[in-house]
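Marked as duplicate of an earlier ticket. Keeping the data here for the record.
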Amino acid sequence: MAKIKGTDVYSAVIRCTEMNDDSVQALAELKETDVRSLTLSLPTSKVGDMGAQALAALRAAPRLTTLTLDLCGHELEYSSTQALAALRHASTLESLTINLNSKLPRYCGAHILAAFSEAPSLEALRLSLDGNQIGDSGALALASLKDASNLKQLDLGLQSNQLGDSGARALATLGDAPSLTALNLDLRFNQIGNSGATALSALRETRLNNFALRI
């Protein structure tokens, strides 16, 4: 991955197939640019703690408003997931997409990512977490995203996560989010029964302008 420190970068799409010392250094230097929109695809490389810390350092990028992270090619450790969650402190970040299909640390990954409810400027959040087996407790944790003060659009990809009725009912409380106007829930291939489906369907009667449910 080419080093870009000292260049005028406003929008960048970067694909890295091998995470080495040079790649980590280049990622760390992105925070010193004026990048506004950034897409990072790391489909096969192992991020590791150093790489996750470099990604988390993007919270200091002075003008970054849109960030997409495709990390579906490898598993994250607990410490690496915690580092990524530090992106919630990015004061300018308005739109965040994270693809972590089947790669979160078991039992705790969803709870860590739920910390994005604290993001001060975030208006759009997309989390693709298919196949992570987060269970009902993970769904309950993600339901706390309703506390995000400025969040307007939320997309949750939660296929094949062993969600049941209690998890579905927890996610249904997302309709109480004060600023949310668009909600997209993909809950296919879970174990949601009638009571959970009824609670989710009731979201169609809330003030949401745009609601999509796949179950």
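See parent ticket for discussion. Helices lie at 21-29, 48-56, 78-85, 109-113, 135-142, 165-172, 194-201.
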